[in-house]
Design goal:
Helix content: under 10%
Order of helices and strands: HEE
Radius of gyration: 14 Å
Number of domains: 1
Number of helices: 1
Structural class: mainly beta
CATH superfamily: EutN/Ccml
Largest sheet: 2 strands, antiparallel
Strand content: 5-15%
CATH topology: OB fold (Dihydrolipoamide Acetyltransferase, E2P)
Strand order of the largest sheet: 1-2
CATH architecture: Beta Barrel
Amino acid sequence: MISPMGADQLTGKSSNDISAAWSLVAFDNLGAGVGDEVLYVEGAEAMQPFDRPIPLDAITVALLDSYRYTPPAES
């Protein structure tokens, strides 16, 4: 289960780790655990590692050790 992070989670403004975005189920062959931060892809790109079509919506592609987020400047 993946809970995509929004700007509030990325900047620490949110008091909980769950975003308002829809959660999704992703195929994981990396060994991600509860609370691990991952990058994932959706759609046709999620099926690329497989040699035949798989009914798959999302797949994890990286485990993150750290990240830095800079909010876009307001104009």
